[in-house]
Amino acid sequence: MKRYKRIIDTVLTACLVIVAATGIMLHLKKHGIVIEPRAVLKAIHYYAGYLFSLCALLHVQMCLPVLQKMKAKPWFRRFTWILLGICAALLLTGIVKQFSPVKMLLAKWKK
Q1: Inter-axis angle of helices 38-62 and 74-99, to 10 degrees?
Q2: What is the pTM of this model?
Q3: Rounded CA gap, 55 and 49, in Å?
Q4: Fewest beta carbons within 10 Å, which of 31, 45, 53, 54?
């Protein structure tokens, strides 16, 4: 069990780095810096983001006994809820952005 947790934590960390790096590269377009091939960057960003979400759920599931013991501490509970809210907001933002690209929304809004 400990070995699987280490693997999941390693994949979780790698996905965080990949999602952050590709997200920054994709964001640079707004500042006039275009990194090609964009379609590949987007695909890597989405797949790494979904893998990150899956690994985060598995991580929480594996650490649940420890989390249950730690919930008595008020600072830990607040931090956990803040972290959960940030992760949920990022996941929902990514899903909305993937299924309704900004260009389509702007085109409909301008008409």
Answers
A1: 150
A2: 0.76
A3: 10
A4: 31
Q: What is the pLDDT of residues 85-108, one digit of tens each?
A: 998 898 888 888 878 766 655 566
Three-state SS for 60-103 is HHHCHHHHHHHCCCHHHHHHHHHHHHHHHHHHHHHHHHHHCCHH
Q: How many CB atoms lie within 10 A of CB 20?
A: 13
Phi and psi torsions of 36, nearest 5°? -105, 155
Cβ contacts of 44 within 8 Å, gap of 6 or more: 18, 22
Give the 3-state secondary structure percentages of the chain, helix then strand then coil, rounded to 5: 85, 0, 15
Tens-place pLDDT, residues 30-41:
788 888 888 899
- pLDDT interval class at 75 (50, 70, 90): confident
